[in-house]
From TrEMBL:
Cofactor(s) demanded: Zn(2+)
Keyword line: Carboxypeptidase, Hydrolase, Metal-binding, Protease, Zinc
Keyword Zinc carried by entry: yes
Domain Peptidase M14: 31-308
Keyword presence, Flavoprotein: no
Family: Belongs to the peptidase M14 family.
Record-level GO BP terms: proteolysis
MF terms (GO), sorted A to Z: hydrolase activity, acting on ester bonds; metallocarboxypeptidase activity; zinc ion binding
Record PROSITE patterns: PEPTIDASE_M14
Name of the molecule in the record: Zn-dependent enzyme from deacylase/carboxypeptidase superfamily
InterPro entries per the UniProt record, alphabetical: AstE_AspA_cat, Peptidase_M14
Amino acid sequence: MSTATAFYPIGTPGQAWGPAEVAEWRSRQVRHRSYFDEVANVIERLGERYEKIQYGELDYGADGRFPLFALKSRNWDDALPTMLVTGGVHGYETSGVHGALLFLDQDAGAYAGRINLLVAPCVSPWAYERIHRWNPDAIDPNRSFRDDSPAGESAALWALAAPLRASALMHIDLHETTDSDESEFRPALAARDGKPYEPGEIPDGFYLVGDSEDPQPRFQQAIIAEVEKVTHIAPADARGEIIGSPVVARGVIDYPVRKLGLCAGITDARYRTTTEVYPDSPRATPEQCNQAQAAAVRAAIDFALAQG
């Protein structure tokens, strides 16, 4: 668990941010890595095996323009089940991006001719470069998936998934829970919304977030069993919770995904889940985190295929 303080250096305690505070926050964000070098170039190479599509572009002024890419099965067949994989909705959650790319490189070929696959590896490229949770307007894309989304990242993915909304069988959204959630992102959220910051506890290990409206517990446990071969599963805390939510099964909590505007709710897929890898654990390496994400995708597809 990380150490955090109640103070955040932008805004006035008890008052929600306005445009001036958002502008000050954005001016403090620093580019740490390159979406084009680390992600788009890998997508370009994978485009030799999959159909690369550009499903949008984000224009962030002086920060640059960011094309949004997805990769899909070359021989799409409406008679086959459709599987959707998303990563990098929160750009700072590195293994969500690189785990999706790893799955495409090492695993996805085994499913050719058996499924339709659509993968959006990096939904939030500006945030990927700045290792941040929000987009440049201080909006969390993973609370913004709806028809009238204020986040360009969410609106573009929403439109990409729209033709698959009724037909998708499975959707897995790849995330991380990090120590910086407590040291930076939750204090910033409290400051942005003019609310008091209440410290939380970061779980050590992998867990899943199912949909409380349709939890599919056997699906969730099949993923947990496969991921456990790669990395450890987060235990419940002393209250029987993970990040403030009751543990409903080993390594699983549930959220109302559509009510919260989460990415996992963008289709009517029977099987939906959100992964949460813990990259700051002393028991995990970056490669383990990427492999854990790939294992989760394999397990999700395999279960969905077996159940139909």
